[in-house]
Amino acid sequence: LKSVWDNFVEKYYLKNKHDTPPTRNKDDDGYFESVPFRVFRGSEGPIIDLNWSKKMYFLLSAGTDRNVRLWHIARQIQIACFPHPDVVPTVVFHPLSDVLFLSGCLDGRVKLWNIHARKVQSHY
Question: The pTM is what?
Answer without folding.
Answer: 0.76
